[in-house]
Amino acid sequence: METKEIFMTALEACTALGVARGNVYTGNLKDAQQAMKGYHEHLNRLSSACYVGEDGFIARKALKEVK
To answer: Structure pTM?
Structure first.
């Protein structure tokens, strides 16, 4: 995973978490659940990039910030 991809994945994870939070506030729990599923998928992508290639360090830092 390239650096740009790592940052985009981290940003998408944060966005998904914000969407989930907004859906919980409005009572739309089904959509909140879907957003959390997307959040976890992005976290898994970051986790798998942590120990691969030269950008593994960046992925570890991004994962730490997103969690």
So the answer is: 0.85
For the chain, what's the residue count?
Answer: 67
User: pLDDT tens digit string along 47-65?
Assistant: 999 988 888 999 999 989 8
Helix%, strand%, coil% for the chain, nearest 5: 85, 0, 15
DSSP letters for 23-44: HHHHT-HHHHHHHHHHHHHHHH
Any idea of the CA torsion for 10, 15, 21, 23, to the nearest 10 degrees?
-140
- Which helix (DSSP H) or strand (DSSP E) does residue 60 occupy? helix 56-66
Q: What are the phi and psi torsion angles at 51 (to 5°)?
A: -120, 25
- How far is residue 49's CA from residue 27's CA, in Å, rounded to a whole number? 34
Provide the pLDDT for residue 51. Answer: 87
